[in-house]
């Protein structure tokens, strides 16, 4: 073989190897067989009625800040152009109280992590809502969901309202760089449950590990019958649900330490539920277009 042909063969082999690696780590995404996760809407509706009292009347949302990631990091096979990752906090409003869901990141930590925007007014309203909340619940233990709570919890502050699960406290590394102050969790007894848990009238927690060990979804049924499903970061953007495509392997394994199979099974169940029950309002973790669409349609209230 001539030198020129040898070089051409080596280049062709490298192209094949690099192409295969790119496909495997950036593009490929499929739902594995033998699913280990299921959602039963009738069970959720039954649990939503298991706690006596008045159900919520509305859900409000605060857009506390934003990050930007390449689309190829948000969903397998995505484009490399940047996609916004809006950071939200939610307030489930009852006639006599409220529940705060997710607490964003502490502003200085958010900026260090590369936040493209931090809304201090929204952050302040969120903190005030946390002070008077009946419960503070997080969908999972990453800094942009637990950071506000971790930074502010001190002594007795938020001790009564914190409704954190065993799994959300068991693996502190998932919270980095957000960590609770020394002594803030001393003597705290986290919530332990299997499957689902009726937290309040119309509000049900759903254990959904995969993105993190402590990931959970929140099902909400309002007094008017409207139903919501906060899916946290099982999907950063809702197109992961409709396509059943998870984050690419290079993100799942190198940065997030996810159980990617479980995330795929959860995405498949969410897509099935979305198709069978299109009236359920699903909120993906960081999808600004989705959330703002719900606000425009009157399904979410803007601001606490």
From TrEMBL:
Keywords annotated in UniProt: Hydrolase, Membrane, Metal-binding, Transmembrane, Transmembrane helix, Zinc
Q: Name one Pfam family in it.
A: Lactamase_B
| GO molecular function term, any single one | metal ion binding
Give the protein's cofactors.
Zn(2+)
Which superkingdom is the protein from?
A: Bacteria
What InterPro entries does its record include? MBL_superfamily_lactonases, Metallo-B-lactamas, RibonucZ/Hydroxyglut_hydro
Keyword Oxidoreductase among record annotations: no
- Cleavable signal peptide: none
User: For this UniProt entry, which segments traverse the membrane?
Assistant: 7-25
Q: Which residues form the Metallo-beta-lactamase domain?
A: 86-286
Give the protein family: Belongs to the metallo-beta-lactamase superfamily.
Family matches, as PANTHER family = 102 KBASES UNSTABLE REGION: FROM 1 TO 119443, QUORUM-QUENCHING LACTONASE YTNP-RELATED-RELATED
User: What name does UniProt use for this protein?
Assistant: Beta-lactamase domain-containing protein
- Give the source species: Tepidicaulis marinus
